[in-house]
What does this fold into?
Amino acid sequence: MANITTISESKEVRGLNLIAAHSHIRGLGVDIATLDVSSQAQGLVGQQKARKAAAVILQMAKDGKIAGRAVLISGPPSTGKTAIAMGMAQSLGPDVPFTMLASSEIFSLEMSKTEALTQAFRKSIGVRIKEESEIIEGEVVEIQIDRSVSGGNKQGKLTIKTTDMETVYDMGTKMIDSMTKEKVMAGDVISIDKSSGKITKLGRSYTRSRDYDAMGADTKFVQCPEGELQVRKEVVHTVSLHEIDVINSRTQGFLALFSGDTGEIRSEVRDQINTKVGEWKEEGKADIIPGVLFIDEVHMLDIECFSYINRALEAELAPIVIMASNRGNARIRGTDYRSPHGLPLDFLDRVVIISTQSYSGDDVSQILAIRAQEEEVDLSADALALLTKIGQEAGLRYASNLITTSTLLSLKRKAKGISIDDIQRSYRLFYDPIRSARFVSESEKNLISDSGSVNLAYTNGHSDAMDVTS
It folds into this structure.
């Protein structure tokens, strides 16, 4: 069997710090040890029962004791279903994979529905791989580099020490280039991986702390290592099954991870990788980490997708699938029959359901205050009270959007914060769903109907046609 590649060297990609709908959420706001739920913590407000249930699922996922289970978060719109899922993602930690997917994405990708779901499932399963490597770790005493006049191969010697011993190593061209690139000098504490030759500068030795000309403001000082120069260290890295699939499925390897154009991956490749990962697990070289796959708007999936998920949950390698739906009795896509939450009854039978309730007035007020704080906006007490009333009557999302528009209006008049006048003006400028529906009902004759007909005699809401005679 061919060797399976699991890791590749890549640069970290940093995103922009944008203020999104759920950027204020830092976690579930639940004490994992006692399962005590705070009414307001880590950006989440209210929904104590739902958050406590999510914390139980979360802890089981962290412990690796649950896999192949499906959880449905069900409730009316604007009751924090996606927010709870985002809180779970923030609380899982870096090692447990979390994949977020909107159901509508499956139908817009240039691959089959089952392939898109398979990739989402395998992105949510992590493999923690343990490898032992020999490392040389010590303080650099002296670096000697001999450069030939003709510009040929460079040679040099590296003197490195710990508190117990000191050794001189011969350096070739590649090692000298790496030393130059890392700007290693005498007094630096470095680590050299013998298998790859990678050099890591750990810091500057405390014995050189008085060399003011050789350090900057951000210089990190470390102790000189003790014991042997060569030590064996266990290196642990976590990758998802999908990343292993992509790296081994095409010639360009890990570059496909950045382009996003992974295409459809052959089942033979996945079977080979599953076998190899199983061998690693038996040998103690790797651990399987069942992660979390969150599917938003799950009612948008069709009967074929539900059938696939039903089967995939029974597989040996399966994550925890968390779904969200705001539907009541809805027609299942691809069929003629209706079912609760828009899920087939045989699939609903294996799902654990977490219910969210509508927010109270106090909860809406606290959420809007948190959003204003996240957007760094000063909100007067009167403006917050009016926004709370709007949020209860017109919807929390609409009220949250008014914070942004009211901020722009307040900046225009060069005010330091949002007043009640800014909220009222935004309310008049931007319709909420209720007023928009009323406008459509009143102006139905002006709008194009399903048949494509429109009566242009009715203009601007008046029953009298325009007089065009001179």
In short: Residues 443-470 form one domain. Residues 267-283 form the longest helix (17 residues). The two ends are 89 Å apart (CA to CA). The mean pLDDT is 76.
